[in-house]
Design brief:
Blueprint lengths: L2 H22 L11 H10 L3 H6 L4 E2 L10 E2 L20 H6 L3 H24 L10 E2 L23 H16 L9 E7 L13 E2 L3 H8 L1 H9 L4 E4 L3 E2 L2 E2 L4 H11 L5 E3 L4 H7 L7 H10 L9 H11 L5 H17 L22 H14 L1 E5 L12 E5 L7 H4 L12 H9 L4 E5 L21 E4 L5 E3 L1 E7 L9 E5 L3 E5 L5 H5 L14 E10 L4 E10 L2 E5 L2 E5 L7 E9 L4 E10 L4 E8 L1 H4 L3 H14 L2 E7 L12 E2 L2 E2 L2 E2 L6 H11 L5 E6 L15 E4 L7 H9 L56 E8 L3 E2 L4 E10 L5 E11 L10 E10 L4 E9 H4 L2 E3 L4 E3 L3 E10 L2 E10 L1
Parallel strand pairs: 3-4, 4-6, 5-7, 6-9, 11-12, 11-25, 25-29, 29-30, 32-40
Antiparallel strand pairs: 1-2, 7-8, 10-30, 13-14, 13-18, 15-16, 15-18, 17-24, 18-23, 19-22, 19-24, 20-21, 20-23, 26-27, 27-28, 31-33, 33-36, 34-35, 34-39, 37-38, 39-40
Helix pairs in contact: 1-2, 1-13, 2-13, 5-6, 5-14, 6-8, 10-11, 11-12, 14-21, 16-21
Amino acid sequence: MNPRNLCLIWGCIIFCIIGAKGKAGGGDFRNTSLDFEMRAADLVDRMTLEEKISQLGNNAPGIERLDIKPYDWWNECLHGVARAGTATVFPQAIAMAASFDRELMYEVACAISDEARAKYHEAQRQGDYRRYKGLTFWSPNINIFRDPRWGRGHETYGEDPYLTGQMGIQFVCGLQGNDPKYLKLVATAKHFAVHNGPEKDRHHFNVVPNARDLWETYLPAFYDLVVTAKTYSVMGAYNRVDGESASASWMLLEDILRQQWGFEGYVVSDCGAIRDIYAYHQIVNDAQEAAAVGIRRGCELNCGSVYQRALLEAVQKGFVDEGEIDLAVYRLMLARMKLGMFDPDDKVPYAKIPYSVNDCAKHNALALDMARECMTLLKNDGILPLDKSSIKTLAVVGPNADSVVALRGNYNGDASHPVTVLEGIRKAVGDEVEVLYSHGCSLAEGVEEQTMPVIPSAYLITSDDTGQQVQGLKGEYYRGIELQGDPVLLRIDAEIDMKWGTGSPTDTAIAQGILTSDQKIDQDNFSIRWTGQLLAPVSGLYKLGVTADDGCRLYLNGEKVAEGWFVHSMQTFSGEVALEKDRRYDITVEYYEGTKNAGVQLVWERPEEDGATQSELTSRMLAQVAKADVAIFVGGLDAEIEGEEMSFQADGFDRGDRTKIELPAVQLKTLRAIQQTGTPVIFVLMAGSAIAFDGLDDDLSAILMGWYPGQRGGDAVAEVLFGQSNPAGRLPVTFYTSTDELGDFSDYTMTRDRGKTYRYYQGQALYPFGHGLSYTKFSYSDLKISDRHLDDDDDFTVSVKVKNVGDRAGQEVVQLYVRDVESDLVMPVKQLRGFERIALNKGESNIVTFKLNTAMDLRHYSPIQQCYTIDPGAFEIQVGSSSGDIRMTGTINVE
């Protein structure tokens, strides 16, 4: 019999047995004394075929007669609860991988799942069943970042399968919780499998990996999350693998995932991937056939509408039978059972998490801890850390210096108080150092500023409850859109830069205990009035405006400047006014939110920004730099130009991906001009992928990789710059010297002649995988290997003594690599098989011990035997501070 049909038959038999047991025992899906399997089977048995099919799309309607509430399975939490209003925004995934800290990753994931649970139960109380309000999260992304040009690489944990698996395990365990009965959330490992660009080809691309690449590079992290972390969901990919849609592949979903790995959860397609089966891959002719293929090959949940639109007709035509649909619905209902969705809240321990945990002070501090740990110092000629006492003037320049976008990455929530690098530096130096700021240049040619800059708090003045003048504007928050009645919330907002999305403006106040949950303002149908004074920094003609999603008005000294008092998507309404330097003007901003995606900003264009030519602006910036003792250039990329399937195309960028890894030309040009002033330059690089510098790195005094560091990123950067924090982040990707070193982006082959990732690259990296500097130094000694003659399934240990021999406390990431001494050309050059992040005071030492197993850590995949195997012979154990900084080695032999 065809093994595909055999698999489906056994699944249906198991489902029927469970259902029969439930009926024999008087089963009822409402009976909490029964096990979840019986209850789920009973629930499915009560549904009509049409009702079953309705539950197979991400936006599943309620079934009132069965008391099933509507549910949207789509939710995101890549580095914080995303797209659901205010939430703690942790560093982007690639940044957290740079921490090389398993324990902190787990702590972050626990915080995310706390906020997710709190948001879910609050939404349930409000009868809000919309997207991004559920408990099934489509994170983490554990695809291997094999080529730095892939736009979505910053969503991953880097280029190494072992590091990806280790960090992913902690993330999944933190999300799903440790209750013996209930899941805290459902985590989803994505995108299964062999998926990492190019973005523009993902809907029709077919990758045919050889067996070794599949099992040694593209599958190991998924194995770790499925088998070790027990992730309860897996998402398929858009592309084909060996001719099959990855979201409907018997090889991937039934053979590998369920039969070989014993996966017990459910599979969800990437969004629109079932449609791609017929619309782009053209594997089948129409939606009915595509729906049947998806169900029969193991994809239970369709992100999209093909299942809901086409499965009934597919059943009627005989493409798929109802028993196969029953099994898919059963697996989905079982997941909802395990999440406690059919049980009273008092039986579900996670339902007790208070709403106040969202965006709380503890999580804000944790975001700073993770941002500190991901700071990666690439170069330092001794200029860092900066001594404030020796600096009178500091020039801060660059397109990411005052950018909130550069903090948050993609798939992000809305931070209530994000700290940009400029703000962090200003806080760090206080009044001791004069800070001169200039935007400097754009991120890249063709990148236009999306909005006018937000008016900084320094130019907004109001009075607090004591009559004391403070920075910011007084906000009055009302229910309804009419600005009438008593305000629910009165507070001073430092700036008007709000993006609540589908959240509420009272979320933070409730989380902080300022308001109670019954004082919550709904996420739609509210209004706000801000009042105070505007201080003009220079004389001239200003453009003042409000950027808002829905109604907005702006008044200056009682005169209307701008208005857009109707429901609309995010857009700017502005007017021109002449202002005098150092004069204060009464300002009133009014805003209302009708429906969807609440957000408002008070923005301006100052005369020197609006009237000057680019040449004049550059001259002013260079004059500031020349005056300064040190210049800090904050540049790189952001997630609006590197990311998922975008429309943006420009020199070096192609619809989300990059065509060049060099720093964009406009930034290189600006940096070279800055260097000619003679002022030392520190480059704070904010990006989600590897950057090359076209030789410019030789002339920079220091380079600090800040990644996309989350809501406290500006504080973390400033702490490193001024020595309050000692950096210890490590690169989870290789930094190559130029694009010329990269081969064909569409080539998924991982061999030494292709040179992809540090595992196969044989060149001289600009900065190697695992690289990262510190303000102190560490020595390595006393390498010990417990047994140097081993069989093919032996445990052994490797230990090394690490000592802080510098003059200050610091952290070191001790890394262990394995090299097959007798390998052929298809074997990796070396592979990471252990790492530990340790903290040592000045003069302190510690013994770091790694536990390894020959069958797991020295193996490779044999296409002939179709299994993992170990070649006998010598293996070199390498221990050091990076893949390029090996301090000690030892040899073992496998017999």
